[in-house]
Amino acid sequence: MVQINSNFQKLPGSYLFSEIARRVAAYAQANPDRALIKLGIGDVTLPLPAAVTAAMHAAVDEMATAQGFHGYGPEQGYSFLRDAIAQQDYQDRGVNIQPDEIFISDGAKSDCGNIVDLFGPDNKVAVCDPVYPVYVDTNAMSGRAGEYDEKSGRWTNLVYMPCVAENDFMPDLPGEEVDMIYLCFPNNPTGAAATKEQLKPWVDYANRTGAVLLFDGAYEAFITTPGVPHSIYEIPGAETCAIEFRSFSKTAGFTGTRCAYTVVPKALTRQGASLNAMWNRRQCTKFNGVPYVVQRGAAALYTPEGRQQAKDHVAVYQNNARVIREGLANAGLTVSGGVDSPYVWARTPNGMGSWEFFDLLLRQANVVTTPGAGFGPSGEGYIRLTGFGETEATRQAVERIRNVL
Q1: Could you tell me which Pfam families the record lists for this protein (predicted)?
Q2: In this structure, are residues 243 and 115 in contact, taking their beta carbons and an 8 Å threshold?
């Protein structure tokens, strides 16, 4: 008889956002007259920038001709996009990342999950707490997480690094030696942003111990505070210890179009093996590449028009986050984030549980949020709200919440 991967059987319940969707669907079905406003899942609401759609239309026309048709493309991504990323996202910032260190993919979520293919099953993994669930669940599926403890809400083999109000939502270095460290800045879900001074000890630690930093920079476009780096590679020494994930989903509306990239420097080696070469082999074996039309759309973001249009979109979401942050603070909630991040992290009132407050806002305000407990034990007592909603709907949602409070 075939043997299944028993690690899947250890996963608790359903994926966080699937459970939210289930509860919201049940409520909407029972209350069809209620107009819900969704500030939970971080999906965008603005359409693709005009420069992107124009480039995609032109690419579709190309595909309709014998001369312009593209079949299988390079698994690593087309050079026109990799070159633009290397130049504008890195080299123009003084960071020496080359095109062949950049791999185009269909999403940062996919790559954050797939990257574990490069690492052995006995590696010790450290995650921030609260944490984006993909980091934890994919390591649990691969057998690194151990057993799930229902009482504590933690996996026995993972090292949890609390990100709480007492440390300004910035994790301390782990008290024991670990091999893989997930960092996400600006952070999902807390909205905290890390300075160069705060990131340097992590780079030093990884280079000293041989660990690898898995750095999720999906929200770098929202950074406005001086001194906050846009890439882990702005920290000296990061090229020998860090892999970086970026995405066009939240910065340019690609949630339904799917395009992102991962940077694996050639200088990053472990046990004599090049992780760049390993990731290249993994992608060539398991991935057929992002469609030509989509990559042409992404490349348009590196034109002056496309870059400005993307900035305009980000500005709308930043303003939404400000409206949420200020509105909830004026209503008496303790809030953080929403400055260098599209996410606002709000403490629940009167010691209320995360899911309890989620249900209260769903039923009484008809506003969908994300319960902090779904991001890990240290997320209990918080909810996350996103600035990705429509502007007027965001304003109405804040007003509804204030009325309930």
Answers
A1: Aminotran_1_2
A2: yes
Q: Which among 336, 310, 376, 286 has a CA at the least distance from the CA of 106? A: 286
Q: Which residue shows structure tokens 């008290």?
A: 175
Give me the torsion for CA of 367, 373, 378, 384, rounded to 10°: -20
381 is written with which tokens?
A: 């007592």
Integer Cα distance of 374 and 14 in angstroms: 10
Residue list for the binding site for substrate: 15, 42, 109, 132, 188, 288, 384
Closest CA to 220 of 244, 237, 202, 199: 244
Q: Is 33 helix (H, G, I), strand (E, B) or coil?
A: coil
- Rounded to whole angstroms, the Cα distance separating 400 from 394 reads 10
Specify binding-site residues for pyridoxal 5'-phosphate. Answer: 72, 108-109, 132, 188, 219, 247-249, 258, 288
Q: What is the mean pLDDT of each run of 10 residues along the chain (405 residues)?
A: 95 82 92 93 93 98 98 97 98 97 97 97 97 96 96 96 97 96 98 98 98 98 96 98 98 96 98 98 98 98 98 98 98 97 97 96 96 95 97 98 95
Best CA proximity match to 192, nearest among 327, 376, 329, 339: 339
Q: Annotated binding site: which residue ranges?
A: 15, 42, 72, 108-109, 132, 188, 219, 247-249, 258, 288, 384
Encoding tokens for residue 372?
């902090």
